[in-house]
Design goal:
- The complex is a heterodimer of chains A (526) and B (201).
- With 526 residues, chain A is an alpha+beta fold.
- Chain A folds into two domains: 2-39 and 82-115 and 175-470, no CATH class; 494-526.
- Chain A contains 15 helices and 15 strands.
- Chain B is mostly helical and 201 residues long.
- In chain B, strands 1-2 form a two-stranded antiparallel ribbon.
- In chain B, helix 1 (9-32) runs antiparallel to helix 2 and helix 4 (111-136) runs antiparallel to helix 6.
- The chains are: A alpha+beta (526), B mainly alpha (201).
- The structure holds protoporphyrin IX containing FE.
């Protein structure tokens, strides 16, 4: 039955949305088909021969056939940078939240807009802010950034400008790939592997042990194999993760047809020979055992970012930086102090998918470190499972009078950007002004913060998954999760002591009895 | 001295199989409990589950046997000669006095044994398998409507407590098996079925 469903799902994936088409890599798909199975070869379309002066011109041509695509893209988070959490009522998305890495994109468009799927944040090279950006202009949708298959396309002038042939890129369009998605998602937080801990450039071409699904010489999954996409809406969310899939295998017509959970393909009983482990899956996310470490692809991830030490200059009054033995920056005058790590044991928490953010403008809680996002879940809540997290820590600017986190203007060529002028006060004023917030008291300080990043990628095959005793042992990985009994980890200290004493008494008693018998025996025989 | 047939073949089979199962269950159980590393947690869990089923099946047969043969009466406690037997083991045995209790096929346990085995059969064993089965089916509690009444902490606690009692019983029992003369007499009896008893006057 299980295999049957898997086959259905695989067949659906291959004929339908996920792959099969336009695989330019020459490697066979799941059904052994090699080559381009797309129904259109864009090289044969005269309209795409160019020449093109800029991206929007290409987009306009795309839209002549794909008439609705821009509208679809413009309805996504990739475009709006806006997301509203229906449960918490919080307005999230990049335009609203603040993270514990670079903070907020507001006032920092010159850098941050590079990962927006649109053109026009820097008309004539000068960044504009979100209030001025035209979110309604269809020709601003950047089709190529996701659909490029040449690897040549770059939007950002910082990447060396437009040295490639736009027409060639336009004619070579195809499905998205680990490369196109990774270009932004592997580099979140300002560099390779910085943000997530479970995503970095090692996933461009992972081996089986690093990612059993994306294994370049094996299943070779794309991001969209799981992040199913319909009308450019991409399944899966960092804001509302599915902590426990209740649908199981997603058979077309029966369920919501999203595959961003392990259960969507593997069902609820993924271990045919180990019912024990299937039972675990009710309360333990698959990720917990199958993502044994974070940052296990050879790259490090950032685990500590202390902004409070930024703006130090060297004896010549110039910014400087320091690196560790592996070449990772441990200090820069622009950004402060960093700590990096690879092969990190994740932290584990009960998680039901509900995340509450500390948003800019919210009064901050008294707890320290302050939680930038607060995850919920508990043993008692049957919708919760134990999940692995990367916990990012550091220090961020806040207003000690207003008790609010501050938006800092870091990147830019103007006269207030922190990374150019190293003046916090100016940079904060500019940052807050960019969101029309006039409440800044003029005092700033740094507060220690924490941010939770559930891990769901770099999924290991059985051989690399966790063994029982990683958790079922006295000081195992789940030592901090209290309130429930776990064999091998927990015991009954008093009873254990009494039990061993009882066993000792019986044994010593028996041995003494034996000794006496021998003693009297020998005595009698004399 | 004369040889008396005391232990039927089923009893002997049951006894030794149970002994082997309990030793293995004890070893694997306390590894699961985290007391030491022996076969590795994973192996111990698997072993413990399989052996536990073996023991339960064996017990089912044994209970059936006890009732169909009437042998359950062997465990009816008695105070008759209880004191004498106790005094024998603390005093008489050192002076090589004769055992105050004569075994026959109908009374194969002395009063002290009766009490000990009754405790084993009525308290330790049921506590072990009831708590063990509940433990095993922990994930079904909700489906069975038990979730509101049980906590794994208590179930595991009772199972572990029973396991400690069983270990203590086991240690004493093994020693007592050699408290006879010659010291292998009981063991031999449990293998051959024949025990040597003193002739009636
Ligand atoms: C009817 C027979 C038995 C059953 C059904 C049974 C079942 C279980 C189960 C289900 C566990 C939990 C580990 C797991 O999930 O696999 C367990 C643990 C354990 N068992 Fe048994 N068992 C039985 C007999 C025994 C015996 C005879 C002993 C020792 C004399 C024993 C000692 C232990 C110990 C010490 C643990 C660890 C408890 C803890 O730390 O939580 N068990 N048993």
């Amino acid at each position: 039955m299980r295999t049957f469903f898997l086959l259905i799902v695989l067949a659906w994936m291959t004929t339908g949305t996920a792959f099969g088409a336009a695989d330019n890599s020459g490697s066979p798909d799941l059904f052994g088909r090699i080559g381009n199975t797309s129904s259109a070869d864009h090289h044969k379309l005269a309209i795409l021969q160019g020449p093109f002066k800029n991206g929007p011109q290409v987009t306009k041509v795309c839209l002549t056939c794909h008439t609705e695509s821009a509208k679809h893209v413009m309805a996504t988070k990739h475009w709006t940078w806006n997301f509203s959490n229906k449960v918490t009522g919080q307005n999230l998305g990049k335009l609203s939240v603040l993270n514990s890495f670079c903070g907020s994109p507001h006032s920092n468009w010159t850098v941050c807009s590079d990962c927006h799927v649109g053109y026009g944040w820097k008309p004539n090279g000068i960044p504009i802010d979100a209030r001025a950006y035209d979110f309604t202009n269809e020709s601003n949708v950047d089709c190529l950034v996701c659909h490029d298959t040449t690897g040549e396309y770059h939007k950002s002038p910082e990447d060396g400008g437009q040295v490639f042939d736009l027409a060639e890129v336009a004619m070579s369009v195809g499905r998205t790939s680990r490369k196109t998605c990774g270009k932004c998602h592997f580099f979140g937080g300002g560099g390779d592997g910085v943000k997530h801990g479970d995503m970095d450039s090692s996933l461009y071409s992972p081996n089986r042990s690093l990612d059993v699904h994306m294994h370049a010489g094996g299943l070779n999954f794309n991001c969209t194999t799981c992040h199913t996409t319909i009308g450019h809406q991409i399944a899966g969310s960092r804001y509302t993760p599915k902590a426990k899939d209740l649908h199981g295998i997603d058979v077309p017509g029966w369920t919501d047809a999203t595959r961003t959970s392990c259960e969507s393909c593997h069902g609820f009983t993924p271990h045919p020979k180990h019912p024990r482990l299937n039972n675990h899956a009710r309360r333990v996310a698959c990720q917990t055992c199958h993502i044994p470490f974070l940052a296990r692809g050879g790259k490090k991830t950032k685990i500590w970012w202390d902004w409070s030490t930024a703006t130090r200059l060297n004896s010549e009054g110039k910014p400087f930086s320091e690196k560790d033995a592996d070449g990772y920056e441990t200090y820069t005058s622009q950004k402060g102090t960093f700590r990096w790590a690879s092969q990190i044991v994740p932290e584990y928490f009960w998680f039901n998918g509900l995340i509450q953010y500390t948003l800019p403008g919210d009064p901050i809680a008294n707890e320290r470190p302050l939680k930038i996002n607060n995850i919920s879940g508990s043993y008692g809540d049957s919708g919760s499972r134990i999940w692995p997290f990367k916990v990012m820590q550091g220090k961020q600017a806040y207003d000690p009078v207003q008790h609010k986190l501050l938006i800092v203007h870091t990147a830019g060529d103007d006269d207030s950007a922190l990374w150019k002028h190293f003046n916090w006060d100016k940079a904060i004023k500019a940052g807050m002004a960019s969101v029309n917030d006039t409440s800044y008291s003029g005092k700033y300080d740094f507060v220690e913060t924490k941010m939770y990043w559930p891990a769901a990628h770099m999924v290991a095959p059985v051989a690399d998954a966790l063994k029982c005793t990683e958790c079922h042992s006295r000081n195992g990985r789940l030592a901090n999760l209290t309130g429930f009994y776990m064999p091998g980890r927990d015991r009954f200290p008093l009873m254990d002591t009494l039990g061993w004493i009882l066993v000792a008494i019986v044994s010593i008693g028996s041995l003494s009895h034996a000794a006496l018998r021998i003693y009297f025996d020998v005595k009698e025989r004399r | 001295m004369k040889k008396v047939f005391i232990y039927s073949s089923f009893e002997r089979f049951w006894h030794w199989t149970q002994a082997a199962l309990i030793v293995m269950l004890m070893l694997s159980g306390f590894e699961i409990h985290g007391s030491y590393v022996l076969w590795g947690f994973e192996k111990s869990v698997q072993l413990h589950r399989h052996l536990a089923w073996g023991l339960i099946v064996l017990w089912a047969f044994a209970i059936f046997w006890h009732f169909t043969t009437g042998n359950w009466r062997q465990y009816i406690p008695t105070t008759q000669k209880l004191a004498e037997v106790a005094i024998y083991y603390t005093k008489g045995i050192f002076e090589h006095l004769p055992h105050p209790y004569k075994l026959t096929k109908l009374r194969k346990h002395n009063p002290l044994q009766r009490l000990a085995y009754l405790f084993f059969k009525l308290i330790i064993s049921p506590a072990t398998w009831i708590s063990g089965l509940l433990y095993m089916y922990f994930t079904e509690w909700t489906a069975w409507g038990l979730a509101g009444y049980l906590s794994l902490f208590w179930v595991a606690g009772i199972h572990t407590a029973a396991a400690f009692l069983m270990m203590a019983f086991f240690c004493g029992h093994v020693y007592m098996a050699f408290v006879c003369s010659p010291i292998t007499a009981h063991i031999r009896a449990m293998i051959t079925g024949y025990e040597e008893v003193e002739e009636d006057e």
